[in-house]
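Sanity check

After download, print the first record. It should look like this:
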Amino acid sequence: MALAHRLDRLGTETAFAVSAAAAAWAAQGHRVYPFHLGDIDLATPRVITEAAAKAIADGYTGYCPGPGIMPLREALADDTNERRGTAYTPENVVVQPGGKPVITKFLQAVMNEGTQVLYPNPGFPIYESQIEYLGGEAVPYGYVPTDSGFAIDLDRVRSLITDRTSAIIYNDLQNPISAESTAAEREAIAQLAIEHDLWVLSDEAYFETRYSGVSSSIASLPGMAQRTVILYTFSKKFAMTGWRLGAGIAPAEVAQVMGTMNTNNESCTTHFIQHAGAAGLRGDQSEVQQILQTLKGRRDAAVDVLETISGVQIARPESTFYLFPDVTQAMAARGIEEVNDFATQALHATGVSFCTRKHFGRPQPGEERQYVRFAYSGLPADDITEGLTKLKAWIETGETEGQA
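Expected structure tokens:
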């Protein structure tokens, strides 16, 4: 029997393939430093875990409303408004089992088959996967390097918009490259959306994972709340990657559709986990701040080594928990032409496991520089320093000390 043809268009999050290779290498007795997957090895704050246990004990283990329980929707609306200067109500909030479902349901709500959706590339690979799987045309836009990191290629974005473009996916505080828009860049994207009547998915997964300054949302700009869906996730801020809790914060017409999709797809997000999320938003934030300080220390440990490696160019980003260094010269020094070969040889020589640019969307014509991504959210600072010091020795001298 044949499977559905649309499965041919379904991609995946290829960082998990790197996980498999790292696990196989570790199973042979080698030490592995897992920089490949953006998971967090820190404990979820106790205000959340205790609230979950209480909610289970209190019997919140059955069905609940498809759009989410009202205490959580109210807490999310209040928190979003306070941090973004918006005016959402609970009716704009649709709770989801994680952030990823917001991508799919946004596209199902606003994209017809054959229409175009602009998305960042390099970027989270599920954008590209879901646009194509659902029958849209995935149109990538890119970035240009700057002294402080990367900026959206706005001229390229302008050139890509056609009368078939229905939406743009915008990831400020970006995975994998840690880019943060300037106010001018954010306003330029908003102006293009208004001028061409585009829907916007604003992926704000890392809105509060930042080490200085204050984040801003495109939804807070004039004329944008009515055309923007915010992707909110508890995974990063609260170290809740495995809990699967997120939300779409959307114009009422889209929120209503997403709520109906919830009923069709999941019935509802796990009841007691929603009570835990509400407690996290309303409760003591001291452990949340400690998570952020720990991540900041890990960022500094990683950058402190990477910026000393000959042939590696790296900026010190103020957000997310990713680094996206240019390794073009380092690869040349090792005589390696293919970036995935560079990653494989680095793993076998040093135990350092990381993703490459090729794991974050199809490379586009004209890309000449080679980049890799390090996620520092899952390793203690001492391990970060140890692993990257081994990587430095291998790149600069070929030394492979410490590997079995």
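If your output differs, re-run the checksum step. Summary of this record's structure: The mean pLDDT is 95.
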